[in-house]
Structures are given as structure tokens and as C-alpha cells.
Amino acid sequence: MIVGIVGAGQLARMLALSGIASGQRFVFLDPAPDACAAPLGDHLCGAYDDPALLDRLAERTDAVTFEFENVPENSIEFLSGKVAAYPGVRALATARDRLREKTLFLELGIPTPAFAAVDSLKQLRRAVRDIRLPAVLKTCTLGYDGKGQYLLRKNGDLERAWERLGGVPLVLESFVNFDREVSIIAVRSRNGETAFYPLSENVHRDGILRTARSRPGDPFEQQARSYAERLLHELDYVGVMALELFQTGDKLLANEMAPRVHNTGHWTIEGAETSQFENHLRAILGLPLGGTAATGHSAMINLISELPDPAGILALPGTHLHCYAKMPRPGRKLGHVTVLAHNEHVLQVGIDQLSLLIE
Ligand code: AMP
What we know:
Blueprint: E1 2-6, H1 10-21, E2 25-30, E3 42-45, H2 51-59, E4 63-66, H3 73-80, E5 84-85, H4 89-95, H5 98-107, E6 115-118, H6 121-131, E7 135-139, E8 149-152, H7 158-165, E9 170-174, E10 180-188, E11 194-196, E12 199-205, E13 208-215, H8 221-234, E14 239-248, E15 251-258, H9 268-271, H10 276-284, E16 297-304, H11 310-314, E17 319-323, E18 333-341, H12 344-358
Parallel strand pairs: 1-2, 1-4, 2-3, 4-5
Antiparallel strand pairs: 6-9, 7-8, 7-9, 10-11, 10-12, 10-14, 12-13, 13-16, 14-15, 16-18, 17-18
Helix pairs in contact: 1-10
The chain binds adenosine monophosphate (AMP).
């Protein structure tokens, strides 16, 4: 079967690496001539909204998916009229706009940090009176890895934040003094079958994910599953979805959802019965889903800005190195390492040793 992917970055690359093993072929649409997934399939090099290229993508494939949520909605709408395109337009439209996303969370009874829409400095002042400081001002669309965000600590920060971000639709949300960040990776097939991976516990620094570790048997798993299940059902979702949450005390608050395979699920490549990439492909191609149980204890550590010496990494027990073949640039995700262990203690030692090598 031939799969089309809008975007040819590292997520598309890992999807293709997984699918090629079971005989699938790939066609990518991406404007970057050196996109890192391109060597793994046919590359339609051009804009995400080029109708001629979208036509070719649809004609040449059995199903189409996308690797990031900033794809123009119209492109997926257009593709949906010609080929099976998953997850659908509604999932994309919801996930690419923080205000829509949080509104849907509330409609489905999924708790979120308090939030308010902000379109002017006056509205920002009013929202700060309601929500109180500290609070985070975020652009509704096109934010990623902490970009398009401003942390407001005191009233004097409001004008600077407005100058920095104003002019596009914004959302103000209360700053959550969380105990930890977690995410759940969920998958739903074309016939409505669902499966959930164990919770992932995540650490971000400067808005960028640094580590994600599997937490099989986590006491918050059921709560997270229930929230993800509501979203899958409501959106008639097909494919893998990630839901990122803050844990505060005995509660989970939803931060955001991603309508795609997700960085906090990379540990599933070696650490689960079936990886998130394989299950996404199985789902969109109408194949039975694979098991999602963890096969042990595992963690993923992102390689950001530069790649360390591979021999040093691989000398540590239980490590697997993934490089995305991208040019190094400050703040850019260039690869990741998975570390596997048979218990939590050994895993922590592995994470500490890796962190020393990488930082
Ligand atoms: P986001 O792009 O919304 O996922 O934000 C990136 C990271 O910034 C999150 O994973 C958190 O570490 C932090 N962050 C975002 N929003 C909040 C918030 N309301 N309270 C506390 N930390 C936040």
C-alpha cells in the first residue's frame, strides 16, 4: 500500500522507517528540498497548498496523513475529497487552534487551566483581572516548542507581552504550578477500535521536550485514558493522537492535543509491543491495531542543537540511537536516544548517564 504524508520531517521519516519494514511505500509533500524523510520515498517538493501537487499526492496513494498540525486546513479538506485522509479535517482544525481546542476540552468535561480569548490590550487587562497572575499568553495558532508564548508574572509585563505577540488571536491561560507533565498516546482505527499506551512522564526545558519516560501502571492512567477516549470518539478520529496534561495534586488538566504521532511517544519504538508509528499506519490503512503494552521500562532523551559522539552513547547499556539526518541548528531536534531497562532504578541510572554525555 502507498501512504502519502504531508510534511517530510522526522515524524514522517519515522513513519516511513516503520512502514517500509512491512512493505508500504511513501510519497511526501514538503517544500524543503532537503527534507529529512525525502530519501525514504517519492518527494513532491512544493507548497502544502499547491493544488497540482495535492492532486498528485491523492492520485498516487491509498491513504494520506500529515505529520504536523500547521498544515493548511484547506489542503486536508481538498485531499479528503479524493483519498482517505486521516485524522480528519475537524481534528486538524481543532488541534491547530488553542482556543477551539480548549473549548472542546470544556465541552467534553476535560478540565483545563482557566483561559480567556484575547484580541486587544484592553481584553488582555480584563483577562488578567479574571485569571490572575502568573499567566501564560499564547498565540492561538502556529506555536510550537514554547514559541509564541509569554509568561506574565506582574502587571508591568502586559504591554511588553502585547507588543511581542499582539495582532493575532491570542489566549491567556493561568500558569499551572504542576507536579509533573504527562501525556497519553492513544490510537483509534477506521472501525472504531481504540488502544492506549502507558502514560508518558515528560520534562520540558525552555518549552522544548527533553525527556519522556514510560510509566506503566501509573495511577493517573485511567483518568488520562478517559479524557483521550472522549476526544477520539467526538472527533471520529482515525490514527494516533497525543494528549498532553499537567498533573496538580490528584487532578489532570489538559494542556494540548496533537493530531499525530508525538515526540513523547518515541519511546514506543523499542519500549512497546507496537510503536506509535506502526499503529498510526495500521489505523489509517484499516489494518488491525497492534498491542500497546510497555515491554519494560524505557525513556527517550531528545538530542537538540548538536549530535553527541555515537560511540559514547552506544557504550551505555540499553541505548538505541535515532538520528534524523537534519542540519544542526540551535534549538533544533536532531535525534533521540531510547534507553531500556528492566526496572525503574536501572532506567534512572541510564537517564543520568546519558544526560551527562549530552549536556
Ligand atoms: P505548549 O506549547 O502549550 O505545550 O507549552 C510548552 C511547555 O510550556 C509545556 O509543556 C509546559 O512545560 C509549559 N507551559 C505551557 N503552558 C503552561 C501553563 N499554563 N502553565 C505552566 N506551564 C506551561
